[in-house]
Amino acid sequence: MDHEEFAARTQAVRQRLYRTAYLYLGSEADALEAVDEAVYQALRALKKLRQPELLETWLTRILINTCHKELRRRRRVTGEESLPDTAGPDAYDGLSLREAIRRLPEELRTVVILRYFAGYTLEETAQSLELPRGTVSTRQRRALQLLRLELGEEGEA
Amino acid sequence: MNRSEEYHALQKELETTPPQLEYTVQRALARKKSLQRKKRLFGIPAGSLAVCFTAFVLLVNLFPPFAAACGSVPLLGALAEAVRWSPSLSAAVEHDYVQPVDQSQSAHGVTAAVEYLIVDRKQVSIFYTLDTDRDIAHLDADYDVRLPGDLYGYNSTTGSYGLENGALRRIDVNFVDMDVPETLELALQVYDSTDRWAPDTEPAEAAGDYGDEMLTQRQELERAYLAEFTFHLTFDPQFTAQGTVVPVNAAFQLDGQRFTLTEVEVYPTHLRVNIDDDSGNTAWLRGLSLYLENEYGERFESCVNGISASGDPDGEGYGTFWLDSPFFSRGEHLTLCITGAEWLDKDRESIRVDLTGNTGEELPQGVRLEWAEKREGGWLVSFSAPYRWGNRTIYQIWSQAYHDADGREYEIDSRSATTSPMVLGPLSGEELEAHEAYAAENRDRYYESFALKDYQADQVWLEPAWTRVTAYEKPVEVAIK
């Protein structure tokens, strides 16, 4: 894939990438920085992309890794953690939706961000996370339950 | 606000994206370009050059007798001595293809003089001396080559260290993308290197073993310079114009992979063979064992100034192979003879290695993981590979980049190539015996050792420089002219 195609296809998904990073990191500046970093890392590794048709999901995976890295760094500094896996919906009730999403266990948070905020289909989410569709489906149901959000398959409330 | 209202509010908030997002791709492209420029420390990206490390088993060639014959001519004698291991430069000197310079500068009791240049369209060889009237047994110089404007696309090398004061030293500047400009500046920073070269001085005691040194961030060397000089060199246009391009366009195959020898560039100082690969090839061509022969049986070998090939920094294969030049030979016909090829299979550009054992993917042909040691600062690893093509040249086994399980990229910045097994610290008597026995059993192998700084995972994805090597009993021949 040449740089021109990479630029055009990345440009087309930049808003999705930004929304994903914004929900992970919670600020405009951090989200922009994460998108910049992910796009740059993807560009550097472009020749290693075996299936050019999967550029968008590959880029998403790189972005999620970038966000995780930043979150790990923050955790070392602030000690901020997700709520435990055993926490039920009550534990999230007192938090704003944005905060509640950020405190979800990692595997649920990623699914809910991609599916309901960044606009990824079930298939695209499964590809980005390299998970079976069924697993994505189960995780999104569990996440919505914890957040007490009643959304349909495509996000309609 | 209930959850549903919150959801819609957050969706709305996310509809507004910052204007800077518009330029994220441009920023990435600019950053990559800037990185490439940094990697062009000396002009050519490090990864685009195949460097040949000859393990001090130099072939006896025809040129020392010529150097001896010139010994009676004082001026050319020193020059002939300085180029004695380069057949192309020796031929240039023999044919008076030399631009005298005679520029000299003195400061603080140190004198630097640029004496001669050998220049053509693609290469500049600078010959200079360092001397002093102070009581300093050995001088050396750090150097910098500066081009007019912000030009880059060149690489410079020197092997002239540890010479006696007054001896002729040489710096070669090789140009790839551009031709030799009309002028360049040579900056020399001269320092006292007596401690390094005098035989009766003890090396300074290192704080840790060699492994610690490899894992430590490399410190920029701060030297105390005795004197600094800048020489402005102007090239005679009759020399910078020298060179011809011979179109060939001959198709050939190696191991079932298809290539076209497009053209040959013949310069007085060296020759370049340009080869295009077919996009349907399943492997990148990473190296060739080759020579040129003329109708008189004269051979012109590869590896010029330590460079055997150069290539596109964005590709994986090498497209230009460097050989000694037939420019001054009497032959009219040339045949390229290929006796071996080095391949990187396109489906094996990354290999998973389990550093805790030997359970990773198959390593490149003949490569062995000798040992891997985990320390606080990262992993130290050593691999070995068999020599090839009947010579004892060291070929890099792994490329610069490596990855972790999440695909994050790192770079090896400290690497060591040795002809005997790598040891990190002093060995006791028994250990030394065992080491020597192992080295003797494996004398047909060379070793590449490096540090994965701050890397703590047990698995690593390394990028092989090649995955297999072939040798042809009967050379594959391509007629050039």
Summarize the structure.
The complex is a heterodimer of chains A (157) and B (481). Chain A has 157 residues and is mainly alpha-helical. Chain A contains nine helices and no strands.
What distinguishing features does this structure have?
heterodimer, A: 157 residues, mainly alpha, Rna Polymerase Sigma Factor, Chain: A, Arc Repressor Mutant, subunit A, 2 domains, B: alpha+beta, Immunoglobulin-like, 3 domains, six-stranded antiparallel β-sheet
Overall description:
The complex is a heterodimer of chains A (157) and B (481). Chain A has helices spanning 3-12, 14-25, 28-44, 55-78, 89-93, 97-102, 106-116, 122-129, 133-147. Chain A has 157 residues and is an all-alpha fold. Chain A has two domains: 1-80, RNA polymerase sigma factor, region 2, helix turn helix motif (Rna Polymerase Sigma Factor, Chain: A, Orthogonal Bundle), CATH 1.10.1740; 84-157, Winged helix-like DNA-binding domain superfamily/Winged helix DNA-binding domain (Arc Repressor Mutant, subunit A). The longest helix of chain A has 24 residues, at 55-78. Chain A is globular, with a radius of gyration of 16 Å. Chain B has 481 residues and is α+β, with helices and mostly antiparallel strands. Chain B has three domains: 98-199 and 224-241, Sandwich (Immunoglobulin-like); 244-344 and 471-479, Immunoglobulin-like (Sandwich), CATH 2.60.40; 348-468, no CATH class. Chain B is built from nine helices and 28 strands. The N and C termini of chain B lie far apart (84 Å). Mean pLDDT of chain B is 79; it is low at 37-47, 52-74 and 199-206. Classes of the chains: A mainly alpha (157), B alpha+beta (481).
